[in-house]
Amino acid sequence: MKIVINEQNRRNFVSQVESMLHDKLSKCYQCGKCSAGCPVNFEMDYTPNQIIKMTELGMEHTVLNSKTIWLCVSCNTCSTRCPKGFEVAEIMDVLREIAEKRGINSKVEKEIRMFHEVFLNNVKSNGRIFELELVGKYKLKTRHLFRDVFLAPKMIEKGKLKMHGEKISDLNRIAKIFKDFE
Amino acid sequence: MKLAYYPGCSLKGTSFEYEVSLLKILEVLNIEIKEIPDWNCCGASAAHSINHNLSVALPARNLAIAENGGYESILAPCAACSNRLKTASYELKTDDILKDKVVNSLGMPYAAGIDINNMLEFLSGVVGEDKIKSMVKKPLNGLKVASYYGCLLVRPPKIMQFDDPENPVLMDDLVALTGADPVDYSYKTECCGAINSLSNPDVVTTLTGNILYDIKKHGADLIVVACPLCHSNLDVRQREIERKYGEKIGLPILFVTELLGLSFGIDPKDLAIDGHMVAADKVLKKIKEL
User: Fold this and answer.
1) Engineering a disulfide at A78: which of A14, A34, A46, B67 sits with its beta carbon 3.0 to 4.6 angstroms away?
2) Residue A29: is its pLDDT beyond 80?
3) What is the pTM of this model?
4) Domains of chain A as residue ranges with CATH
């Protein structure tokens, strides 16, 4: 596979990632320890160390459209074990955030992305999570209407699924926080 | 010491058993905590996954309300909430530019001085082992208990500053105080897949299955946790995992507060142990016969 990368674009992408990450990509010497300990490596299209290298090489289209950035569960095992103290888990946060801000509507793992979006919308409208509403809206959006539904009757019986959510009083402040940082 | 309490959304919903049992044992221990007024969601995994600054600003509002209310320390029993509050506190201490923006957005001062405790730090540090030991009325001698820590209590160690990140023992020590035997096993800090429980359930049942079968193999009677998300995956999805692998597990998952409560001689109903999906009847019977 031949990929042609414009050096100026590469530098721009690397500097955007590094400034958000507060860390240097060149720290990584590709030992692969992050990928060896990653609990979700078996599902990923690129291992975490490959993502770091591809980011450094400026392969932005590939990393921003990868399954890996969405499959990462932020367990932080990689960063904890990195012999160079590189922020491996955080680079996934940074790449997700760039993908989200650029409006990259990748088909891969889009349900994971949608879940984060529906979750934050729920925080925006209530100040807190109303679980039943969160699950309902997520299901409507992904059309997975029946997945996990078998769990509902017993959860309701046990009192785990509340029928009413709580709203905080100072929702204006929450709206301001979202406005300032979204 | 004035203690603020940050329950978080899970303790008011799917993990209500955690709050019920916590409040009950604190009543017995005679320790007073005050819920942070008008607290908001910490943003959980969703915020840091797609918006770093928001993931600092949302918890910061709770930190600022508690600090301005004159509290010195916050108890955040949910591992995810405590992780997000500690991370926000760390970011606000180390990034002055972001701190100015956040304080401005919150419309109230914040000195970044308030201390945050997760459940285990609170129990062993604030309450203290001696006090807990003195309350044990019903020693759980011979009960085999596996402590599952998961990710968010221990990692990243730079910010969490909690025990050994690869082999933590703080919860095992608390288990030992009740008279029960801590079970040693390999998956103490492996991830259950929490964040993607709804959006990627197949991966979550694989990860959680690894943990449950390893604990089963080591002969535990039950598992204790200090995280609502871990609890949800281990408890709520246990039947599904049994069906996936065709092998019975049948391990009740208790919050650490429930196990302490049982050793204090508190009625299981008052600890909401009947609120779990996997029934703890066999274990409760075993305890009764001790």
Assistant:
1) A34
2) yes
3) 0.96
4) 7-101 (1.10.1060.10), 110-181 (no CATH)
